[in-house]
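subagent[fold] <- orchestrator: predict structure for attached chain, return tokens only, no commentary.
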Amino acid sequence: MTTPAGFALALLTTLHLAFSASAAERSITVEQGRIEGAPARLDGVNAYLGIPYAAPPVGALRWQPPALAAAWQGVRAADKPGAGCMQPLAYSRPPWTEPFMHQGEISEDCLFINIWATAATPVAPLPVLVYMHGGGFNEGSGNVAVYDGAALARRGIIVVTVNYRLGVFGFLAHPELTAESPHNASGNYGLLDQIAALKWVKRNIGNFGGDPDNVTIAGQSAGAMSVYMLTASPLAKDLFQRAIVQSGPGALASFGMSGIAGMATPRAEAEHAGVAFARSLKVDSIAALRALPAAALMPQQAGPPAVRFGPTVDGWLLAEDLATVYASGMQHDVPMMSGMNADEASAFPGYGEADTASFAAQVKERYGDAADRVLALYDTSSDAAAAQAAIALGRDRGLLGMQWLSALRARSATTPAYLYYFERAIPWPEYPRFGAFHTAEVPYVFDNLDLLPRPWTAVDHQLADTTARYWVNFIRTGNPNGEGLPHWPANSGGAQTLVLGEQVSAADIPREAVRVLFDNLPD
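subagent[fold] -> orchestrator:
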């Protein structure tokens, strides 16, 4: 994995656990054969990188559910990540600088996982975190620098990151593919990859010291939406015991979405888009599409893709739209933690650029006759105030979206849910406008501040330690609370939310006047 020069590798925290005295060897047997890992970037942790969990999805296996990985002879080196899945390579797109983006090789042969585990033999099986990367289902990989699992592994868990097929390779729906399928489904190959990875973890993680019956799935952005969809998929039953959703559904209200809208496309609509895509390449059959080289399916090689592919309500992996699944209580009833950042949309055009007139016009267009009541909640006395009001409205919509989903879940769930609001802006004098941007919490969650060249303060280091402790507690037990941490109340659809910032405390947010008004407004 390529990372920018100047990354410090200093140790920030030390974990004391009751491990047995003997050091574990870095050679481990998995179902396909023997692998040999390497020392991780922090002492006391081994990294097992680039382990294939499924067969390369190439040739006839392009746009098929993942097949079992082949066995190998001898010892396979697991000391460097495998290729990332096919995607447009941007390398850096501020605020997502190099540590947040996939660097290095891409290939269709990309179904690999990375594992970080303590170098000492644990006295009891350790809880497991399986992390799904973000990137809008079109970018990213489990090799991204900020996902390095060494610091969390030192806190007494096993960390797994996953590559899954992206873009057209992971999410093409097409009538011919649906007809090929014994399940009459197409379009969710990337999600099927995630499920295959979870099955591999269940069968093999015990050999790394992990507990196959104590698995937490987590992810941010598209990874968070993946997690939410896995909680709704019958195919993922019994593969995990907890779920963490970072900047996922609900929180995306700050992008102009709310609830679970836009997460998965109806199959007929997705198939229509797939046919149009094939025609755009002057191809009229799946056989002809499979015959094309991978690069021909990716005409745009840099920047966001011109055509975005994503999950589909296919009738198999997703039997119903997610709102129906949760409203009917058909989801997997596991403890859930979810949250959002204060400036989710700060990287996108127009953020914070409203003036009094344009903000009023936007509110009028969205809320119609209720516009005056909405405007009365925010200071619009000047253009500068209106710009901040537009940001505040997006934040409030995101919080309310999360709380609406929590309330929907609470109708049938017997397990707790915990909501957070991350408001700490990464110190970045060159780009203060980005604030607590979409993905800004990830270095704190993984306790990886040392992987970003930023002017960190004591506040940031303390917040990273606190955030990582909450996450590890939840991964262990389904409850983030623990000794020395501010109490994080469970949420059943109300306003109780933990604020992670310069100060860490629970609060009822947004303010009551906002909650009361929006409870009675259309989306």
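orchestrator: received. Logging for downstream: The longest helix spans residues 383-410. The two ends are 43 Å apart (CA to CA).
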